[in-house]
Amino acid sequence: MKNLIAIDDLNKSEILSIVKRAEVHIKNELKVTGSLEGSTVVTLFFEESTRTRMSFEMAARKLSLGVLTFSKSTSSMTKGESLRDTIATFESFGVNALIVRHSSAGVPKQISEWTDLAVINAGDGAHSHPSQALLDIVAFRSAIKGEIPNIGSFSRKDPDDFSGLKIGIVGDILHSRVARSVARAFSKLGGEVILCGPPTLLPNFWQEFQMVTDLDSVISEFDLVMPLRLQLERASGGFIPSLSEFRHRYGLTTDRVEKIKDSALILHPGPMNRGVEIDSLVPNDPRALVNFQVRVGVPTRMAILEHCLKRDYENE
Ligand code: CP
Fold first, then answer.
1. Which of 283, 203, 200, 198 is nearest to 248 (CA)?
2. What does the H/E/C string look like for 142-181?
3. What are phi and psi of 218, to 5 degrees?
4. Model confidence over 130-157: pLDDT tens digits?
5. Helix or strand or coil: residue 124?
6. Cβ of 231 less than 6 Å from ligand 1
7. In a domain? residue 141
8. Mean pLDDT throughout 118-123?
9. Same domain for 261 and 170
10. Which of 153, 188, 250, 272 has the fewest CB within 10 Å, making it most exposed?
11. Whose CA is nearest to atom 3 of ligand 1?
12. For the whole model, what pTM was predicted?
């Protein structure tokens, strides 16, 4: 069993192995496979989710895994049972993997230290969201390889190497686990990552990437632009003057997308605050991959489950 807590658990070759396995599942139209039959995963989501939870559960079923859905509000945690005892209960059932989302950074890592079951981080606080970054790579590669009808007008010589590509992640970087995972994942494949946002939402502890506060000065350079959801639930206020000011300076508005290269791609991890970090019509732009990102969530998470449950697919 392997854990997937953060992108840094994977080297470049492991990232590409998972991504290419996801591409096999896409090519096979998510054909059901039975090789993991008999294993069981549990989804433990202590924070709301639509895409991640549903796509992990669908991915597990495509792999013939058993799926248990844990809900804190209907569990014995409401009677005071601890998280550690809850994990021990699942261990006793004989399940194989725990897929964990939590609003506090570090919970999946803590769980992984309590158990020998595989632990997959489905998003923890502002720390990490590795499966999102991997599916973003799958979506981006499909576009640059010209595999999505009408999207992606630039051809890359080598989709395994993002060197020479500029990746712009824009907005609420400080509170974003997606930013942390996407930046690490794309840079491991050679991409140049630029983080852009108001000074109050750029983490000053993160020196690894170039940080820019003037979006309009750099947006025309980006090959990929990813506006992030402004995380009002994590920000207690005081980070931006107003939503309209944020939109004016950092929103992917219909006017601002005119400045993006014709060949560039627009990704948003979702859920979107339409009219804040992205205008309502922008996801319909021919360069936008927003719906495609969701579509590749299931095959990517199939590949992640296979990776963590040690499915040997190298010879298939
Ligand atoms: N992108 C993402 O994590 O979406 P959900 O919160 O709906 O899972």
1. 198
2. HHHCCCCCCCCCCCCCCCCCCCCCEEEEECCCCCCHHHHH
3. -125, -15
4. 999 999 999 999 998 888 877 765 565 6
5. strand
6. no
7. no
8. 98
9. yes
10. 153
11. 52
12. 0.95
Asked if residues 242 and 198 have their Cβ atoms less than 8 Å apart, the reply is no
| Ligand 1 binding pocket includes 49 (Cβ within 6 Å) | yes
Segments in the chain forming alpha helices (H): 12-27, 51-62, 83-93, 107-114, 130-144, 177-188, 215-218, 243-250, 290-295, 297-308
CATH number at residue 210: 3.40.50.1370
The response to whether residue 164 sits with its C-beta less than 6 Å from ligand 1 reads: no
Q: What's the number of domains the chain is made of?
A: 2
Instruction: Tell me, in angstroms, the distance from the centre of ligand 1 to residue 316's CA.
Output: 31
Contact between residue 180 and residue 126 where contact means Cβ atoms under 8 Å apart: yes
| Cβ pair 52, 135 in contact under 8 A | no
Note down the domain range covering 169: 152-288
Q: Looking at the structure, do residues 279 and 304 belong to the same domain, yes or no?
A: no
- 5 CA to middle of ligand 1, Å? 16
Ligand 1 pocket test, candidate residues 46, 132, 180, 234, most atoms within 8 A of CB: 132
For residues 283 and 243, membership in a common domain is answered with yes
Q: How far apart are CA 269 and CA 13, in angstroms?
A: 24
Mean of the per-residue pLDDT values of the chain: 94
